[in-house]
Inverse folding.
């Protein structure tokens, strides 16, 4: 999203301001006027700034006009087609709100879109680790980090594969059930043999006893019958253990214990190759970790990857400053504090580049952020700002003559626009809106 034009209507007075798509320097405005402009520019993206009209260009190149007349309904017009697209920007309470269209809140977004000297200084709390890593060759740094992560993931994947193949609990369950089955079968065979002998003996004994005293033959036959029942009970136990073994084998993906044993033998034969692969991967991972330590010191790969964007931003800033130093032999060397300010500014710009819920950009409004910087260094920072502006758009409000002088020269190239509005001494209006700016 970029500003194209701002029109403020206050009674019979109209203030109009056009913006460059990359960098616009609004010079010669004091602190009160700057505060008023910031309020109108950001407030115009909200829902309550009656009399503030904006012309915008969204990230798709669509030209929009946000019209908020003092009387009549507020509208959003597509300037290319001339159609009313107000419903696209309608909030749940019926108001038109540009920020809400991109998932942003007017109150919380103000700090993101507006940056002054105090805000820049607050954001410039440097991280020594980030700065140290930004001094390293970035190609070597991130290729080494990638190698550490890749070898670590490969080791983990191989370990997971092995754990899947060697489920210790499942193996123990299969072996336990199989040993139980073998014991039950052995006991059943012994009991069946003994039961056969007891049954035969009881039958032979019961026949002569039945001829002499029939009543005594019944207990003898009962002994044989009990023995047969015990044999059937042990058979049922064998079948139960067989079912438990089959369930365990099914969990292992085989149909029989013989197939399970054959699979185990194959795994043992392949274990030598698997061990060789693990040793090779472990050596690669160790070498990558040693190289990372030589490159980045005691910083973990996980921490560096988590702060990847910050490190890249700091490295890009160093390249930009080095380029500026090569272009101008008189460009001053920047001290640590100024470098931190520059890094904070570029980081803020990077955040605005994709601040919208769909990755949309928003412009940055700078309120004289370089007031305490030495004049020569200030011009270097302005050069850096001019190179970085455009994605997102930057609007710089200033009351410093050296900045205005720089902007006059840069405006000749067409890469920067300079606006120097006149200043009125009229007091602020009753609705709280600054009336200091006039055409």
């Amino acid at each position: 999203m970029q500003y194209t034009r701002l029109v403020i209507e206050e009674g019979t007075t109209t203030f109009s301001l056009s913006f460059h798509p990359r960098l616009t320097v609004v010079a010669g405005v004091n602190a009160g006027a700057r505060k008023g402009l910031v309020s109108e520019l950001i407030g115009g993206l909200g829902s309550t700034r009656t009399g503030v009209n904006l012309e915008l260009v969204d990230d798709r190149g669509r030209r929009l006009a946000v019209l908020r007349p003092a009387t009549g309904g507020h509208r959003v017009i597509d300037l290319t087609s001339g159609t009313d697209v107000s419903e696209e920007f309608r909030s749940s309470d019926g108001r038109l709100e540009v920020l809400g269209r991109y998932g942003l809140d007017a109150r919380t977004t103000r700090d993101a879109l507006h940056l002054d000297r105090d805000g820049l200084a607050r954001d410039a709390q440097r991280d020594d680790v980030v700065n140290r890593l930004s001094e390293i060759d970035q190609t070597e740094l991130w290729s080494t980090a990638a190698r550490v992560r890749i070898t670590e993931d490969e080791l983990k994947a191989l370990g997971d594969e092995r754990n899947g193949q060697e489920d210790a609990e499942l193996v123990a369950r299969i072996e336990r059930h199989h040993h139980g089955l073998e014991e039950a079968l052995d006991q059943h065979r012994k009991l069946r043999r003994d039961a056969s002998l007891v049954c035969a003996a009881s039958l032979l004994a019961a026949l002569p006893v039945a001829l002499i005293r029939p009543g005594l033959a019944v207990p003898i036959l009962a002994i044989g019958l009990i023995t047969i029942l015990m044999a059937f009970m042990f058979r049922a136990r064998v079948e139960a253990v067989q079912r438990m073994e089959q369930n365990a084998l099914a969990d292992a993906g085989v149909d029989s214990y013989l197939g399970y044993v054959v699979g185990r033998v194959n795994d043992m034969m392949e274990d030598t190759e698997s061990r060789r692969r693990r040793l090779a991967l472990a050596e690669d991972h160790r070498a990558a970790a040693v190289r990372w330590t030589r490159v980045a010191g005691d910083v973990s790969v996980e921490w560096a990857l988590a702060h990847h964007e910050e490190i890249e931003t700091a490295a890009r800033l160093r390249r930009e400053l080095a380029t500026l130093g090569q272009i101008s032999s008189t460009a001053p060397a920047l001290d640590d504090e100024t470098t931190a300010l520059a890094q904070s500014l570029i980081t803020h710009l990077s955040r605005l580049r994709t601040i919208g819920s769909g990755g949309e950009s928003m412009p940055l409004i700078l309120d004289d952020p370089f007031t305490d910087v030495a004049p020569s260094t200030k011009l270097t920072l302005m050069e850096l700002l001019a190179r970085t502006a455009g994605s997102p758009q930057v609007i710089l409000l200033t009351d410093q003559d050296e900045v205005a002088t720089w902007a006059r020269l840069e405006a000749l190239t067409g890469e920067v626009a300079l606006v120097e509005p006149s200043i009125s001494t009229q007091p602020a209006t009753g609705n709280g809106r600054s009336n200091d700016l006039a055409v």
